[in-house]
Design a protein that fits this description.
Blueprint: H1 24-29, E1 44-50, E2 56-62, H2 64-67, E3 72-76, H3 81-84, E4 87-89, E5 101-104, E6 109-110, E7 116-122, H4 125-133, E8 136-141, H5 148-151, E9 170-174, H6 177-183, E10 186-194, E11 197-198, E12 206-212, E13 215-220, H7 225-236, E14 243-246, H8 262-274, E15 278-281, H9 284-290, E16 293-294, E17 297-305, E18 311-323, H10 332-337, E19 344-352, H11 366-384, H12 388-394, E20 399-400, E21 405-406, H13 412-423, H14 425-430, E22 438-448, E23 458-463, E24 469-473, H15 482-494, E25 501-505, H16 522-549, E26 556-559, E27 562-565, E28 570-573, H17 574-579, E29 586-591, E30 604-614, E31 620-630, H18 637-656, E32 662-663, E33 668-669, E34 688-693, H19 717-729, H20 740-753
Parallel strand pairs: 1-15, 13-14, 18-19, 24-25, 31-34
Antiparallel strand pairs: 1-7, 2-6, 2-8, 3-7, 4-5, 9-19, 10-17, 11-16, 12-13, 12-15, 17-18, 20-21, 22-30, 23-24, 23-29, 26-27, 27-28, 30-31, 32-33
Helix pairs in contact: 11-19, 15-16, 18-19
Bound molecules: dioxothiomolybdenum(VI) ion (MOS).
């Protein structure tokens, strides 16, 4: 904390309480206008034609018939100069291609099923869909590869120039693993696999674009309008001041809505061509192909441990499946840094395949790495005859070993000990498993999420003439309760009731800059700026009161939204101050201070799971879960619990059902719909989910003491379930998801072996 005069909150009146969303009514009543709800006068509807092949060259496109279709107002292909002028680049951070153009807007070289080929704007959505179907395309299909192991073999069809290895291996190296394995009493090795998962936010991806003169306004469903704004500005070669992006409500993203989509630029070009607003939202089926996924991974992990539980070495060889264009997902951080281990070597490659590209997905790489590491820890514990909780406690680190700096706080110990106590771990672990067909077991897994430095953020607090408050922040609220938490920070500082605070957010035209709501950094990054803005307002109000009451500043006290002097004998409310004379409005602008550079901020979690498995049918039920979370201070207990429940549920999806299935003979995804691609629904929610916040008030990490929550809440859930499955059945399922089919196969294999 740079400003040493600002004290961390002690007792709080609002912060930390379970407070319903400030926009809850709007959200549940349908009054909230999400981008997908935007309807503008004179608006057209867009649709995109996508390549049906995993790999093809476009020889010819005939749009003659399409132009004659009813309602069609514009057709856009690679033949149009405005489309040709758009270059598509790698996402920031993607290896090896940051400044290299990857494709044209409509690239004649299609590298995955779902790549954009052409687009249409028409008077109705149905007419637009009909029109794209009428486009005649002559494809020359090419050899393809859709599995990462095949893609890495010599002679595999190259997805990008230079072959299918995305970049040089990514490594973490410390100590000497050979020495570590030599010192170990037990060395285990296993190859773990995770499947490709698809983001399935409630609101599908899409935009509405409208031009007014040379200024473009886009309603887009995204996690951070400022990043989308720069993506559009870059693609269309426009100044930022001429591009406004609005994302005040948005229906979920999970990492897939951090970057500008081609659909947004296409909508803007179609709107320009027709001089009418254009709405272009993808169908659910399209989103399965082209707006990102969590990459599948193969993780060969070798670990050494001493009899007393000391980890001596960890070695990972990893391969991930990136899709057709560069992206960046590492499983190594989780493996290389969760536990104290002097000898570590991770080596990871990613492979191009002819399929949709990865985007970040809720803790990118962490649940995969955790799936491997935490099942390995479970196996090591069994081999040395130690309780899995004890083994983890034995290896806790208070230092970030990757950067050799201490953590600002570590609640992992409490996550383990408190979690075990509240879950009833010891009793549950020793309970009889049952003699079938239903058997029962419990498992545990810990996890962490990497968090580097606090992002830049600015917040504006305006106190109006009547004492009510307008708060303006740039951050998108992904449905997690961001606006509510920020309003609570203002209410805490100024004593203004929540129903007198209005929050304006995520509109590049009206709100100040914030980075993307990703990396679990929204509360961590923006709430300190909001607090600092409120503190600035408070200081101004105190100065004004000193002037009005003719009392020295030092004798004034700010309490419950009023300023008191002489033990309360003199009192002014905020409204008294702002209305008096001609002041009308008091404005405070807050910025976030950088984090300390000599320490590392990191959230931790430990999850406990209990499962029931039917050894006759292969059915598995997650009976209950407990999630102990160290995410620093709890800002809002209600939205905190919601985040944790969502994280646990995504872990259930990862561990038990979610999987993109590619048909290797056609190169197409065969389950690209919510019918065939399983995500957890109400019936799959564990019977009981307990959220246990370890609430350490990490006052070193920011002005609020809160660390990230959204992503760490999902990291260890899957591995905890896998470990519970092992405890119940004695079968180690190295490959996620653990489906009924896989369970039956493994049970049959065991039976065959006798
Ligand atoms: Mo997230 S995967 O940082 O939106």
């Amino acid at each position: 904390m740079a400003d040493a005069t600002v004290k961390p909150w002690g007792e709080t009146k609002i912060v930390g309480k379970p407070i319903p969303r400030v926009d809850g009514y709007e959200r549940v009543s349908g009054a909230a206008v999400f981008p997908v709800d935007v309807i503008l006068p004179n608006m057209l509807y867009g649709a995109i034609l996508r390549c049906p092949h995993p790999h093809a060259m476009i020889k010819k496109i005939d749009v003659g018939k399409t132009r004659q279709m009813p309602g069609v107002r514009a057709v856009l292909t690679d033949a149009d100069p405005e489309a040709r002028a758009v270059g598509w680049y790698a996402a920031p951070g993607a290896p090896g291609a940051a400044s290299r153009m990857l494709s044209r807007l409509f690239d004649p070289h299609c590298r995955y099923e779902g790549e954009e080929v052409a687009a249409v704007a028409a008077e109705s959505q149905q007419q637009a869909w009909d029109a794209v179907r009428a486009i005649q395309v002559e494809y020359q299909t090419q050899p393809f590869v859709t599995g990462m192991e095949e893609a890495m073999k010599p002679g595999a069809p190259p997805v990008q120039d230079g072959g299918n290895q995305v970049s040089a291996p990514r490594e973490i190296k410390r100590g000497d693993v050979a020495k570590g394995f030599a010192e170990a009493d037990v060395v285990l090795e296993e190859t773990y696999r995770s499947s490709c998962e698809i983001h399935a936010p409630l609101e599908v991806h899409g935009s509405v674009a409208r031009w007014e003169g040379d200024r473009l306004t886009v309603w887009d469903t995204n996690q951070g309008p400022f990043g989308i704004q720069s993506g559009i500005a870059r693609a269309l070669n426009m100044p930022l001041s001429k591009v406004r992006v609005i994302s005040s409500y948005m229906g979920g993203g999970f990492g897939s809505k951090q970057e500008a989509g081609k659909y947004t630029v296409i909508a803007a070009l179609l709107a320009q061509k027709t001089a009418r607003p254009v709405k272009l939202f993808l169908t659910r089926e399209e989103t399965f192909l082209c707006v990102g996924n969590r990459p599948a991974h193969i993780m060969k992990l070798k670990a050494g441990v001493k009899k007393d539980g000391t980890l001596t070495a960890l070695q990972l060889t990893g391969l991930g499946e990136v899709g057709a264009y560069p992206a960046n997902t590492s499983v190594g951080y989780q493996i290389g840094d969760l536990y104290k281990c002097p000898n570590v070597h991770t080596e990871e490659l990613m492979a191009y395949v002819h399929a949709g590209r990865n985007r970040p997905m809720r803790a990118p790489g962490y649940p995969q790495g955790n799936w491997a590491l935490e099942q390995m820890m479970d196996a090591l514990a069994e081999k040395i005859g130690m309780d899995p909780v004890e083994l983890r406690l034995k290896n806790i680190s208070t230092v970030c070993q990757l950067e050799n700096k201490p953590y600002t706080s570590t609640g992992l110990r409490e996550c383990l000990t408190e979690g075990a106590r509240v879950f009833g771990w010891k009793e549950a672990r020793s309970r009889p498993k049952g003699d079938g067909p239903w058997v029962r077991g419990v498992g545990v897994a810990s996890g962490m999420f990497g968090e580097q430095f606090g992002p830049p953020a600015t917040a504006i607090v305006c106190v109006n003439a009547d004492g009510s408050v307008d708060l303006s922040i740039g951050a998108a609220d992904l449905g997690t309760g961001t606006k509510t938490v920020m309003a609570m920070v203002v209410a805490e500082e100024l004593g203004v009731p929540l129903d007198r605070i209005h929050v304006e957010n995520a509109d590049t035209g009206t709100t100040p800059y914030s980075r993307v709501s990703g990396g679990s950094k929204t509360v961590f990054g923006d709430a300190p700026a909001v607090r600092s803005a409120a503190l600035e307002v408070k200081a101004r109000l105190l100065e004004m009161a000193a002037e009005d009451l003719k009392v020295p500043l030092s004798e004034l006290v700010f309490k419950d939204g009023a300023i008191l002097a002489q033990g309360g004998a003199k009192k002014l409310t905020i409204a008294d101050l702002t209305q008096s004379r001609t002041r009308q409005m008091v404005v405070g602008v807050g910025r976030r201070d950088p984090d300390p550079t000599d320490k590392i901020v990191r959230p931790f979690a430990t999850h406990f799971a209990e499962v029931e498995v039917n050894t006759r049918t292969g059915e598995m039920r997650v009976v209950r879960m407990l999630a102990a979370q160290d995410s620093g201070r709890v800002m809002n207990l209600l939205t905190y619990r919601n985040q944790v429940l969502g994280g646990v549920l995504m872990g259930v999806g990862f561990a038990t059902m979610e999987r993109r299935i590619m048909d290797s003979s056609t190169g197409k995804m065969v389950n690209a719909s919510l019918h065939d691609y399983k995500i957890p629904t109400a019936k799959d929610v564990p019977g009981e989910v307990t959220c246990l916040p370890i609430d350490p008030h990490d006052t070193e990490c920011s002005l609020t003491g809160a660390k990230g929550l959204g992503e760490p809440a999902t990291v260890p859930a899957g591995a905890a379930i896998a470990n519970a499955f092992y405890h119940a059945t004695g079968i180690r399922v190295a490959a996620a998801p653990i489906t009924a089919a896989q369970i039956l196969t493994l049970l049959a294999e065991r039976k065959a072996k006798g």
